[in-house]
Structures are given as C-alpha cells and as structure tokens.
Amino acid sequence: MTEPSGKIVARPMVVRACGHQQEFQHYTVDKYRAQRLAKFQRTRCAECAAKLVKEQQEAAEALPKKGEALKSLPPGTQVTLTRQANGSWSGTLSAAGTSVELAGGPEAGPQSVVVALARLWLLESGAGPEQGVP
Q1: What residues form DSSP beta bridges with 49?
Q2: Is this model's pTM higher than 0.90 or not?
C-alpha cells in the first residue's frame, strides 16, 4: 500500500485506539482509504505509543535478568516442562514450598518458559534475586 498523493479534500477528526482524536486526511484519489482509516483507528497516537513503549521498557528493567532469576532459585528446585499439542510449552516450578505454573505462547520455547517460571516464582515467593533463599 503506497502513500496517497494529491490534494487533501477533508480532514475529519477520528478516534484512535488510545481514545484520543486526531486528524485523518482524505485525498482526492485514494483507493486504500478504507484500509488506511482502519489502521489509523486501531493504532495509538504517537504520544501514547511512546508512553506505552517507555512503560514496557521500565517494566522489563524491573524484572530480574534471566541469569539472576535462575541463580536465585534454591537448591532442590524442580521444573517440569510439557509440550502441548499445538507446539507450545507449559511448565511448573516448585521450590521452597511455593509452586507456580505457566503456559507459554506458541512462539515461546522451553528456555523462555523456564526463565518466566523462575521470575514468577521470585515474585510469588517474595525472594529477590539479591536475597536468595536459605
């Protein structure tokens, strides 16, 4: 889909996915106007998109790194992984009296499920990466 060119004939205000109204441009010749409008309506404005990215980065920085999460698990930790019929992985992690379960998405491999389980266990058990578990 190419960017339309030519004269702008209308500039209606359209509500974006974030709830803000922004100007959408109608061109004299634009055979993809309906598709452009649909995409415009299901996406966020630039300010909200930047805010979302910043929040996601801050949330990712707050999580322990994968090496820290795995090293924080106590001795005797048991991990069980199961491959589902659709090819995704799920697993359980039990350590120090706390068990957590997680079903990974179709793109998640077994290693990412183990790291996610370790991070989830750290959150639920209250053991931080620097604290460890006796």
Answers
A1: none
A2: no
